[in-house]
Write a structure and sequence with these properties.
With about 280 residues, this protein is of the alpha+beta class. The protein folds into 2 domains: about 1-110, no CATH class; about 130-235, Chitinase A, domain 3, CATH 3.10.50.40. It contains 11 helices and 4 strands, in the order ααααααβααβααββα. It has helices spanning about 1-5, 10-25, 40-55, 60-80, 90-105, 115-125, 150-165, 170-175, 190-200, 200-210, 240-270; strands spanning about 135-140, 185-190, 215-220, 225-235. It has a 4-stranded antiparallel beta sheet with strand order 2-1-4-3. Strand 3 (about 215-220) and strand 4 form a beta hairpin. The longest helix is centred in the last third of the chain and has 31 residues, at about 240-270. It is elongated, with a radius of gyration of 32 Å.
Length: about 280
């Protein structure tokens, strides 16, 4: 049974049935443009909509009003079509597109992904489900506007730092080599997202690739450039399916909806011979 539910052919059959039901509701069993009837399905839909809004069934007078309004809507719609009022109406066209896509996407909601499917999905998108990395580092800031040869100067400063003994590499001594800014000299257990938000994504990505304990020049941020030493790094491990099941399952459903919609439009493009002139 589970194998059958995974078959793409079954999905398209279900989609076809859903679209047939949709067209039945829209047309409401109209024998022609000048014959408008009210089906049992539409009556149930009118009752359901009223009860959902009012939290009670409609009275006879209220139900008669619902039916009367429905017929008004239908005859106005039919007359509007005859008069060409719908032609080129982008709002109506967009609304119909949204309804169709909702029906197509709704067929995915009945699917139940297996452990194997979720595991395969997690493996393919593993980088998105790593634990966030935490960084501890020190930085020396340099204003590009104040230096003619920033690359050469930074290399000289890195060499000077390396020549200092551990006891000489104090905060005061090192800050004296850099330019002034309101940034902190040292940061502890700062997450990747925090670093990216505060310094920029280039700076955060540089920390990911950086070796511990080494002073590295020319680390760019939104402020300018920095000489940085990474003192500690943790996190970044791939998370298990059990730890991120909810996120993976939702992402799997989103992918299925996108793929189903793509196939649906491919079929429609062929059916209506879509081409660019």
């Amino acid at each position: 049974m589970k194998t059958l539910l995974k078959e793409p052919l079954l999905h398209f059959l279900l989609l076809g049935a859903a679209l047939f039901y949709f067209y039945a509701l829209v047309s409401d069993n109209q024998a022609s443009d000048h014959e408008i009837t009210l089906s049992a399905a539409k009556i149930a839909q009118l009752n359901y909509s009223f009860e959902k809004t009012r939290q009670r069934p409609p009275s006879k007078e209220e139900f008669d009003a619902l039916v009367n309004n429905y017929f008004k809507e239908q005859v106005a719609y039919q007359k509007g079509k005859e008069l060409g009022l719908l032609d080129g109406d982008s709002i109506i066209q967009k609304r119909i597109q949204q309804k169709l896509e909702f029906i197509v996407e709704d067929t995915v909601a009945s699917l139940t992904p297996s452990e194997e499917q979720l595991t395969v999905f997690l493996t393919k998108h593993s980088e998105e489900y790593r634990k966030e990395q935490l960084f501890s580092f020190v930085q020396l800031y340099f204003n590009l506007q104040k230096h003619d040869d920033i690359d050469g100067e930074m290399q000289t400063i890195v060499a000077k730092i390396k020549s200092l003994t551990v006891s000489e590499q104090t905060k005061e001594n090192l800050l004296s080599l850099s330019d002034n800014i309101y940034l902190e000299y040292e940061y502890h257990n700062m997450s990747f997202s925090q670093v990216a938000r505060y310094f920029g994504s280039d700076f955060a990505n540089a920390l990911v690739a950086m070796e511990l304990g080494k002073w590295l020049p020319d680390i760019k941020s939104g402020y300018g450039v920095h000489i940085v030493k990474l003192n500690a790094k943790q996190g970044g491990e791939l998370q298990s399916l059990a730890a991120v099941r909810g996120q993976v399952k939702q992402a799997w459903f989103n992918q299925q909806r996108q793929q189903t919609l793509a196939k649906f439009y491919q079929r429609l493009f062929v059916e209506y011979q879509v081409k660019q002139i």
